[in-house]
Amino acid sequence: MRDEYDIENLNPRKNPYAEKLNQQMTVSLEAETYDYFNELANDIGIPFQKLVNLYLADCKKKKLKPELLWN
Questions:
Q1: Half-sphere exposure of 18 (CA within 13 A, CB side)
Q2: How far is CA 32 from CA 12, 14, 16, 38, in A?
Q3: Cβ(33)–Cβ(51) under 8 Å?
Q4: Confidence (pTM)
Q5: For 5-61, what is each residue's pLDDT tens digit?
Q6: If you write DSSP's letter for every residue of the chain in order, what string do you get?
Q7: CB contact set of 48 (below 8 Å; sequence gap of 6+)
Q8: Contacts of 37 (CB under 8 A, 6+ apart)
């Protein structure tokens, strides 16, 4: 190892995985919705957050929009 490094001339490169990083957020779900996805995740054998992310990514890919009915 060197005693000193010239940081200004290191020529850093961008992280190739930076665009694939997940963004952390908080979402409020109805208890029934949470229970449904949590049970489904347990049945399939994948983590809850992974299942929700896969489902939302699939909705995005298929360009699905929710049906909004106001009572």
A1: 4
A2: 48, 42, 39, 10
A3: no
A4: 0.66
A5: 777 777 778 878 877 888 889 999 999 999 999 999 999 999 999 999 999 999 999
A6: --S---GGGS-----TTGGGPPPP------HHHHHHHHHHHHHHTS-HHHHHHHHHHHHHHHT--------
A7: 37, 38, 41
A8: 29, 48, 51, 52, 55
Q: Cα(12)–Cα(47) distance, rounded to whole angstroms?
A: 35
User: Is residue 38 classed exposed, middle or buried when 0-12, 13-18 and 19+ CB atoms within 10 A define those classes?
Assistant: middle
Instruction: State which amino acid sits at residue 26.
Output: T
Locate 18 and state its tokens: 């930076």
